[in-house]
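Example S7 (structure tokens).
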């Protein structure tokens, strides 16, 4: 089931990511000052500038970086922060990814919700105020088939104006069917853009095919999916800066290739789960904030999403700097909203506040929680 690589595969092959990432350690204070001045003046930054903003020299200027990012976020997005909820429909998976709690072969309790059970979970989330759902599943061609997912989207579309998926890569035809059923967004984390490292951690199953995974975004965009979600898993590859640079290049490529489509990105850090996978590098809090602020300055219109993996203080802080979409009150197990404890979670969450508490935090900070998921969010 191999797929032709998308156009971005050639762009990625042409990028000198190690060279760009190596620019960072050589960057000095003067270089950081120059890039910040360009960003503040509204100038367009290149990948070399982003490498400077990701550098250790810029980590020492994190407050300036955060301030500049906050100004850019306010200018481009106003005070709106979108809230969404993940709805795990299945933790069955035929792929083996060494970092994931759903990996095939792990002795975890598996569950796939029926369409009726999915609707029951969704109605609980609707009662909590959500109008944007992210349907999440492992990769299982039988339990989570194209027909099943289309049926779920069709059932939930009257309840939710914005439905996204975070699932396997689908055929062009299936993306078209999903859009017709009411799908708005597709999230396909590449996890790492380092082919060698990708191959080490994706040991079996469909997800092992790097190019097939990379083609997901273009397949979905060509089928009319209006929001494309990118992500790298921080802690998976040693050179996290190279991964952020590649993600930035991918975001720019997609926003030009599908100019009517919103591009959204996330930088999750590895959390404890049943796989017991140790991160190969720990991205500290200052560097985590730096990565978000740098991406905001590099690509001002990029929607940055943050999950409940992160602790309360980090989430509350980043909502004031660069993040424009947040999950809230999340469960990462199938059936976890109505019947918790009946299946294995994908990873443990840190921010356990209910959604209304997250919304109250945003209001207290002067922001507008957006439940209905206005599209697009970017001010034009
Ligand atoms: S990352 Fe996705 S494909 Fe890989 S084991 Fe987890 S659920 Fe399955």
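Recovered sequence:
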């Amino acid at each position: 089931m191999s797929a032709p690589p998308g156009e971005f595969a050639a762009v990625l092959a042409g990028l000198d990511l190690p060279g760009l990432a190596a620019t960072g350690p050589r960057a000095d204070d003067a270089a950081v000052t120059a890039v910040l001045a360009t960003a503040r003046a509204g100038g367009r930054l290149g990948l070399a500038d982003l490498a400077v903003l990701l550098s250790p020299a810029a980590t020492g200027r994190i407050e300036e970086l955060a301030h500049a990012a906050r100004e850019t976020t306010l200018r481009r997005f106003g005070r709106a922060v979108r809230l969404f909820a993940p709805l795990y429909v299945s933790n069955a998976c035929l792929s083996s990814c060494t970092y994931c709690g759903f990996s095939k072969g792990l002795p975890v309790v598996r569950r796939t919700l029926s369409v009726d059970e999915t609707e029951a979970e969704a109605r609980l989330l609707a009662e909590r105020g959500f109008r944007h759902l992210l349907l999440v599943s492992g990769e299982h061609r039988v339990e989570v088939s194209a027909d099943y997912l289309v049926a779920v989207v069709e059932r939930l579309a009257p309840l939710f104006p914005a439905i996204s998926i975070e699932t396997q890569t689908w055929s062009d035809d299936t993306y078209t069917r999903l859009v017709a059923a009411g799908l708005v967004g597709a999230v396909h984390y590449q996890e790492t853009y380092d082919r060698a490292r990708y191959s080490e951690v994706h040991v079996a199953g469909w997800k092992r095919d790097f190019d097939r995974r990379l083609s997901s975004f273009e397949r979905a965009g060509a089928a009319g999916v209006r929001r494309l979600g990118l992500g790298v898993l921080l802690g998976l590859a040693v050179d996290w800066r190279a991964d952020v640079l590649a993600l930035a290049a991918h975001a720019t490529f997609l926003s030009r290739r599908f100019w009517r489509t919103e591009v959204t990105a996330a930088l999750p850090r590895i959390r404890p789960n049943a796989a017991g996978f140790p991160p190969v590098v720990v991205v500290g809090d200052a560097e985590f904030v730096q990565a978000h602020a740098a991406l905001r300055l590099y690509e001002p219109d990029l929607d940055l999403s943050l999950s409940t993996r992160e602790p309360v203080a980090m989430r509350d802080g980043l909502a004031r700097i660069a993040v424009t979409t947040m999950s809230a009150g999340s469960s990462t197990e199938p059936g976890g909203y109505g019947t918790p404890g009946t299946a294995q979670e994908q990873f443990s969450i840190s921010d356990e506040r209910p959604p209304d508490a997250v919304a109250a935090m945003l209001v207290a900070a002067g922001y507008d929680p957006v439940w209905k998921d206005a599209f697009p969010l970017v001010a034009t």
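Notes on this example. Residues 258 and 324 are 21 Å apart (CA to CA).
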